[in-house]
Automatic annotation (TrEMBL):
InterPro entries linked to this entry: AB_hydrolase_fold (IPR029058), KANL3/Tex30_Abhydrolase (IPR046879), NSL3/Tex30 (IPR026555)
A Pfam cross-reference name: Abhydrolase_11
Listed name of the protein: TEX30 protein
Gene3D superfamilies (UniProt xref): alpha/beta hydrolase (3.40.50.1820)
Top-level taxon: Eukaryota
Domain KANL3/Tex30 alpha/beta hydrolase-like: 27-209
Length: 220
């Protein structure tokens, strides 16, 4: 279901992947610095989750300004929260690369503003912890303030997220967290000798099983 979400004097393009049964939980997904909501990994994850009962809303927000991306993400969260079509008890924020930074930033901001339980967790796909070869400057400021559960899915050969550095940040985080390493994957989740579909299957299954652990699915 395609929708347009008002954002200032513009609109954000978004697509709902709707499960057959009425969902009570959702995931909001966005893309990295390049691309848009039709990035194959996002499309694949949204379809996978929707087929297992989780509503997915993915949206496009172009721009390399993290504050702008964060503002857009926040607008989408409010939109879904107030939606009459989908009365959700909670939502997980998810993003790829820069999108996951924006998601973390939204959670940090909202935690300072209100303490409702609408946001239940964060999924970071290829979190860009640092720029390539710039390991001294970590983008961990939002992560350290987050309290809700966090899942990282990163490639062990990601040039923007060195394994030891992410593990170090995770050990300082107050939130319950889990890291799933995709062996030998780079920032784009490409692995020599494996097809994209094969890698996506691993990522999708990880995300879904983690979501299931963090939602009381049996209550629904």
């Amino acid at each position: 279901v395609k929708v347009t979400i008002p954002f200032g004097n513009k609109y954000l393009d978004a697509v709902f992947s709707v499960p057959e049964k009425k969902p009570t939980c959702g995931v909001i997904l966005t893309h990295g610095a390049g691309g848009d909501m039709n990035f194959p990994h996002l499309v694949s994850l949204a379809a996978y989750l929707a087929s297992r009962g989780v509503l997915c809303l993915r949206f496009t927000c172009k721009g390399l300004n993290i504050a702008y991306r964060t503002k857009a993400f926040k607008t989408v969260v409010e939109y879904l929260k107030l939606s009459d079509d989908y009365k959700l008890s909670g939502v997980f924020l998810a993003g790829r690369s820069m999108g996951s930074r924006a998601a973390a930033s939204v959670i940090h901001q909202l935690s300072l503003e209100d303490d409702d339980d609408f946001i239940q967790g964060l999924v970071c796909l290829s979190y860009p912890l640092h720029r390539p070869k710039l390991q001294s400057k970590l983008r961990d400021e939002d992560l350290l303030f987050i309290r809700c559960p966090v899942l990282f899915v990163s490639g062990s050969a990601d040039e923007m997220c060195e394994k030891q550095l992410l593990e170090g940040v995770a050990s300082k985080m107050k939130a319950p967290k889990k890291i799933h390493w995709i062996d030998k994957a780079n920032h784009g989740m490409a692995v020599k000798g494996r097809t994209t579909d094969d890698v996506m299957e691993e990522i999708n299954a990880q995300v879904f099983s983690w979501l299931r652990e963090n939602i009381e699915l049996e209550h629904k």
